[in-house]
Write a structure and sequence with these properties.
434 Repressor (Amino-terminal Domain), 6-stranded mixed beta sheet, about 350 residues, 12 strands, 6-stranded parallel beta sheet, 13 helices, homodimer, alpha/beta, 3 domains, Rossmann fold, DNA-binding
Chain lengths: ~350, ~350
DNA sequence: CTGAAAGCGCTTACAG
DNA sequence: CTGAAAGCGCTTACAG
């Protein structure tokens, strides 16, 4: 009961050597159909399960599992991707004795993404962890990986691709609903909301749109008949806010209640409100960016929603390892929890 | 660089056999002082680190790590402890190939806790996971464990004990502050709050008191000068609410705003409010108890705070394993995040 | 098509 | 006090 059955017992039961059992287990050639089937039957009967620890101990030296990670380049104004990387590295450390090797590649735009993708496909990796920012390039990469039977898991964002794939990311629609719940809780059942997509030259990200949709759905579902208006603007990060007459109007509207920033740039809002003498406006944003946390502490932002980026990276590596060693993909599709952060649980004491 | 140094290399460098290296690594007797020191020096120089995977593969068959778990008995009206147990079992499954054996013991009161504690100490376990509900009995058990050099980690609650110990639990004071932040966000800066400790015959739990203290501290710190009053009652679960004149008064008070229930019994509140025709009162409670989630879905409870009980159990086993195999206690002291749950992120879609 | 041997890094008797 | 051998469960050349 306690001691699980091993390759040795299987061999004895089948009257063969352990080498032959191993050949069957790995579907390698060179076994007669009869013995193969006999062994298969015994494996099924006994419920044999490979001992991953023993297997990896053996292979750790000679055949490491090679995983390529292709993520955005960290720059001074976009440090977010340090966090998934941190989680990836934690997983790598935990698995270091199991024979794992992770190589990082970075991109800045569709072109460099495609180029790096090709480089990765040239080297024979066992798996790929990346990000689905560019639909055409992703489909291209995914189809190549499919052909080579290389599993791919996408982080951060979910988009519709030509082939089914694994995604570890927050459900952005749901996150938008949570944001609406929080903002609505703060301001009550009537008022004018303001959704701000602060966009860079990368344009409007799929996550931003999904979050806005969720935000709007919350009100459409729960408060259809209330006097609630939601205005959206796509504000380029490098242009002054006040230049936009819509924004000016919203600032002067006494019914203005709350602002939902669909990405991590919410820390820009408090200063703008102050400059324009706008008070009593609640703000909800995303990500535990340093400046966002600072605003949270000063109570200039009310809530932040965390996408748990370290956790995403960590789970991707752990889940991929489990898939590669046990053919179990169950950890490769994950809805990361929508974590709500306020001043008192933001981690800094 | 890539291939880490192993016991074999150490042996070669020291001109001894691997057996002798092993003896030094495990501080076993039978090595001359000179060789011992030579080997120690080489270990230090090379930064040798034991390969846990190889070590456990070897020992999994003959010397399993035995961990005793002593937790409250699950009953029909207190199912909470199923959850830490679930996390424990998940960890046990993940570590099954590493040679681990967990035995469960249950208590219902101080007497059975002490008795089970003695039973556990009689059998030689490698570690103990339990719960610090009864101070005297815990100190007793902890001192015995100390004498036997058996590490102990406590879940769920932190209390002051005679010896330092490991705790994996939510910071209840902080959780109370979070609850206050949420309730305050909903009701604004003025009003009368109501803290309800719904107590059973087990009496007021340390967590409840700590949560109430945190709740009060939030208002004392942030809104000292505002017209905020906080009333606390300890309501026995088996007695009707309305019988208490204080509660009657609070119900009739137009300034009443929010109720903070310091444990998982918040699901009792909505029905009481309804019976007494009390509306527009916000409710914050604890734990993802089935009935609480039901109230959350019906928007009768606004926020729940989750203590992540599965995570606590999981972390206890994983952390204890790491401690036993690598002498690394870093995962045995943990502030579990104060997780905020609303209807939209409660997990059920 | 199949088996026997060597080995992954560590641990444990056993022999001297 | 020290070493050589056997073994944990699996994997890989190599021999036949």
């Amino acid at each position: 009961m306690d001691d699980l059955i091993g390759i040795k017992q299987i061999a004895k039961l089948a009257n063969v050597s352990i080498g032959t059992v191993d050949r069957v287990l790995h579907n390698r050639a060179g076994v007669s159909k009869a013995t193969r089937e006999k062994i298969r039957a015994i494996i099924k009967e006994t419920g044999y399960k490979k001992n991953t620890v023993a297997s990896r101990l053996n292979l750790a030296g000679r055949k490491k599992l090679k995983i390529a990670v292709l993520i955005p380049e960290v720059s001074s104004n976009w440090t977010y991707w340090e966090l998934p990387k941190k989680g990836i590295q934690k997983a790598v450390e935990e698995l270091s004795e199991m024979g794992i090797l992770v190589s990082y590649y970075y991109f800045t735009d569709p072109l460099s993404f495609a180029k790096m993708g090709d480089t990765i496909m040239d080297i024979k990796y066992d798996a790929l962890v990346t990000v689905p920012f560019f639909m055409a390039e992703c489909n291209n990469l995914l189809s190549k990986a499919k052909a080579e039977k290389i599993p791919v898991v996408f982080l951060d964002t979910e988009i519709q691709l030509d082939f089914p794939a694994y995604f570890i990311r927050q459900n952005s629609h749901k996150a938008g609903m949570v944001a609406a719940r929080l903002l609505h809780g703060l301001v009550g059942t009537e008022g004018r909301y303001f959704v701000i997509n602060i966009v860079t030259d990368r344009g409007l990200h799929a996550n931003n749109q999904q979050r806005e949709n969720g935000f709007r759905e919350f009100f459409a579902t729960n408060f259809k008949d209330r006097a609630i208006s939601i205005m959206t603007i796509n504000q380029p990060i490098d242009r002054p806010f006040e230049i936009n007459p819509e924004i000016e109007n919203w600032f002067r509207d006494p019914g203005r209640k709350g602002i939902f920033v669909t990405n991590a740039r919410s820390y820009l809002i408090p200063a703008i409100l102050k400059t324009n003498n706008v008070s009593n406006v609640s703000v909800v944003g995303f990500d535990l960016h340093h400046d966002n946390l600072e605003c949270l502490r000063k109570q200039e932002i009310d809530f932040l929603i965390n996408q748990k980026p370290e956790f995403q990276g960590y789970t991707a590596i752990k889940g991929m390892f489990k898939f590669l060693t046990e053919q179990d993909p169950s950890d490769l599709n994950m809805d990361v929890p929508v974590e709500i952060i306020v001043k008192e649980n933001c981690g800094a004491d």
